[in-house]
Amino acid sequence: MTNSMEGFSHHREPEGIMSSMFELFRKAKPFEPLYFACVERARAPWFYLHAGIPDEIAGRFELVALHVSIMIHELERRGFRDYGYGITEIMYKDFDRSLREYGVGDLSVGKKVRGMAEAFFGRAKAYGQAIEGQDDGIWCEALHRNLFRDDDQVKQEHLAIMAQYAVALLAALRSLDDGDFGKDFAMPLVAPFEDSSRS
Fold it and tell me: Relative to the CA of 63, which of 78, 122, 160, 186 has its CA 20 to 30 Å away?
């Protein structure tokens, strides 16, 4: 199965009955298809070739964080409160697995994943504020601070194109029916990503 960094979960591994309960909960809801749809889109070459995202671990993490944040915000807007927990648990497991594939030792994995989890929630908050603000300027600020990691050399055209993409993706998700967020979920194609991917 595709993972976020060719392999990346802070995962607080539940024990005993809690583990069984989470597994039943997970299997009853399409958390994995929704999460891995975010991962698949985040790995699309378009972001690295046309939007100035560095094709490295940090860049891939930031794109996963952006897509998962937008996804969870939309699901929670619809009242699917449990989806945020379920998707992030899958994401943390993926982080854990990917770090191990990159050779991070057992003693360091937990600490690194906790750091990634904290980073994700900071980004989710920033992107949530951008979504609520409904303003391209707020989006550009949030993307510059997080996706581009305060890089003073980032091109304004890249900020603009990613802000346009984020707003378009959110609008596309909002146009879907509740039933579309199931096991066969496919991330919508939106401009400018769609235009470039078809060229």
Answer: 78
